[in-house]
Amino acid sequence: MSALYEVRGLRVDVPLGGGLLSAILPGGKKTLNILDGVDLTLHSGETLGVVGESGSGKTTLARAMLGLTPAAGTLQFQGRDLAASNLRRGTAMMFQDPVSSLSPRMRVGEQVVEPFTIHGIPAAERTSAAELLSRVGLPPEMAARYPHELSGGQARRVCVARALALNPALVIADEPTAGLDMSIQGEVLNLLSGLKRDRGIGFLVISHNLPVIRHAADRIAILYLGRLVETGLTADVFARPAHPYTASLIAAEPNPDPRKRRDDLAIKGEIPSLLRRPAGCAFHTRCPIAVPDCALRPPALRAIGPDRQVACHLAT
Ligand SMILES: Nc1ncnc2c1ncn2[C@@H]1O[C@H](COP(=O)(O)OP(=O)(O)O)[C@@H](O)[C@H]1O
Ligand code: SF4
Ligand SMILES: [Mg+2]
Question: Cβ contacts of residue 267 below 8 Å, gap of 6+?
Fold first, then answer.
C-alpha cells in the first residue's frame, strides 16, 4: 500500500525575535525548535492519531503538513513533494476551534458550499448543500440556520460537511472534540470513523485527550516536546506501552469507574519548556526509570516489532 502522506525528518524552527528572551537563553538562542525530526506515514482509509500534552507541537505539525508553516525535511502527499502535489485540493483541515471558524453572518448552507467558490469549481461539478449536510447526518433545513442557532455538535458536523465538499483524500482534524460533552464527542468521532470507512479518507486526528485518540485512531503516534516517543497500532500500544511516557499517560487516563479514579497524576513534574528541552532523552526529568546515560544520549526512534517504534534506551 503506498502512503497517502509521508513525513520524514520534519523539523520546524521559529524565530524568537531578539530582546530579553533570547538574552536570557543559553547561548543567546534566536530560534525555538518546535519539531525535531518527526517521521509519520498515513495511509488512505486509516486514522492516525497524534497525541501529546499541550505545547508538544501538535498544531505546528498539522500546519507544517499543510504547508502553512515553513519546515525542513521531506513532506510527500500522494507520492509528490508538497509544493508539486495536489495538497490544496486534496486536503481539508478542521481547525481547533471550528465554531469560530464559521462566519457568524453566513447561513449554514452557504458556508458548506463555500469551498466551491474559493476553488472556482464549475457549477456542474458542485455538490448541493443538502447533500453535503446529509453526509454528516444533518437535515436539509439546517441550511437556513446561522451558526449561533447550532448546538456544539451540529456546528462540528457543519465543519465536517464543509471539509468534505471537495472530496478530500486527507482530513486533518486538530482537537476535533475539544469543548464538547462526552456524548457529543462520541457522536463526532463515530461520524469521522464512518467517513473513513465509507469514503476511504485518510484522517490525521490530533488531540491532547488520550481517550479520544484511543476511540478514533487505528494507529497512534505519541509526541513529547516535539519528538515522537512511540508509534504503533492503537490496540497494541494500549495493551503494552513500550515507552515510559506512554505508560504514564495511559496510567493517568481518567477512569470511567469513580471508585477506581485516581486524583494524582501518574506523570510527576511539569512538562519542561521547549525553550529548555532537556538534553539527551527529553523525558529524563520525569521518567521513573531513567538511568544516568539518559541525560547524555538522545534515544533514536527504533523498530521493536512490526509496525511498532519506540524512542527509549531501555525499551524492549
Ligand atoms: N510562531 C511561533 N512562535 C513562537 N512560539 C511558537 C510559535 N508557534 C508555536 N509556538 C510554541 O511552540 C510550542 C508548540 O506549539 P503547538 O504546536 O501549538 O503545540 P500543541 O498544539 O501541541 O499545544 C508552544 O510552546 C507554542 O507556544
Ligand atoms: S531513554 Fe531513559 S529517560 Fe528516556 S524514556 Fe527511556 S528510560 Fe526514560
Ligand atoms: Mg494545539
Answer: 245, 248, 249, 252, 286
